[in-house]
Amino acid sequence: MTVQHPRKGRKLAQVHVGARQIFLRDGYAGASVDDIARAARVSKATLYSYFPEKSVMFREVMLHELEEVAQQSPVQIDSAMPAQAALPEMARQIAQWQYSDLPLCLLRVNIAEANRFPDIAGKYQKVLDDILYDVIRQHLDRWVTQEELVIQNSLLAAHQLVSLTGATLQERLLVTAMPPEAHAAHIRDVSAEAARIFLASYQPVDGRQRHAAKAC
Questions:
Q1: Rounded to 5 degrees, what are φ and ψ at 178?
Q2: What is the spatial distance between Cα 70 and Cα 129, in angstroms, rounded to a whole number?
Q3: Which residues lie below 8 Å from residue 5, measured CB to CB, with a gap of 6+?
Q4: How many CA atoms lie within 13 Å of 212's alpha carbon, on the beta-carbon side?
Q5: Burial, 89: exposed, middle or buried (Cβ in 10 Å; 0-12, 13-18, 19+)?
Q6: Which domains are assigned to the chain?
Q7: Whole-angstrom Cα distance, residue 113 to residue 105?
Q8: What residue stretches are annotated with the HTH tetR-type domain (predicted)?
Q9: Is the separation of the CB atoms in 80 and 86 below 8 Å?
Q10: How far apart are CA 16 and CA 5, in angstroms?
Q11: At what angle do helices 154-165 and 134-145 cross, to 10 degrees?
């Protein structure tokens, strides 16, 4: 879906920047038109000349942000890499993306506003399917074909891997502040453990035995 801007020009760009800042910070319910006008450095009259209702502005800004996110998958894995080597890096990339600023803000806003804006929630889920779950599934299917993994439902397994990488990071980021260096270390530790658990669940028994023998 392409976002159709009602007008073009410098003021509209300012409005988008200001609205993005406030909506991602405060959500729809918490965002005031006064705050958006201040952040955009325009008058409320100018704001309303572009968007007669706050809901119209919110929908356009959120759909635009989702289009930006949809441009590239956070999972960038060489298709020649075997599962044993690729999954720890894949888990790290997923965790790094999940808890970077924009994806985390979009998650918060979509959870809060899914009932009020079901079309945005649907677009959000479609973007996640396209850039995350489907990409992971394709890698998993390849490793299954190469007999590196044994998986009956690769899409479900993709969801499980994403859940494993976010199991404790979400609590840490939503509840407590964390300095950048501790945040990076936590992502590294949790993603490594997520990959280990995933491989232990889906790697063939003889594959796990070979890996254990090499480690010794």
A1: -140, 130
A2: 10
A3: 12, 60
A4: 10
A5: middle
A6: 11-64 (1.10.10.60), 72-202 (1.10.357.10)
A7: 12
A8: 9-69
A9: no
A10: 10
A11: 120
Give residue 56's identity as a one-letter amino acid code: V
Q: How far is CA 152 from the centre of its chain?
A: 25
The two tokens of residue 74 are 């956070």
CA gap 145, 4 in Å, rounded: 43
The helix (H) or strand (E) run that includes residue 203 is none
N residues, the chain: 216
Prediction pTM value = 0.84
- Between CA 61 and CA 64 the distance in angstroms is 5
Secondary structure (3-state) at 176 = coil
User: DSSP 3-state assignment of 68?
Assistant: helix
One pLDDT digit (tens) per residue for the chain, 216 residues? 444 544 566 789 999 999 999 999 999 999 999 999 999 999 999 999 999 999 999 999 999 999 999 999 999 999 999 999 999 999 999 999 988 889 888 998 999 999 999 999 999 999 999 999 999 999 999 999 999 999 999 999 999 999 999 877 666 656 656 666 777 888 899 999 999 999 999 999 775 544 543 454
Half-sphere exposure of 201 (CA within 13 A, CB side): 16
- Residue that is written with structure tokens 């356009």 in the block: 60
- Nearest alpha-carbon partner for 98 in 63, 143, 131, 147: 131
Q: Residue 131 has what DSSP assignment? A: I
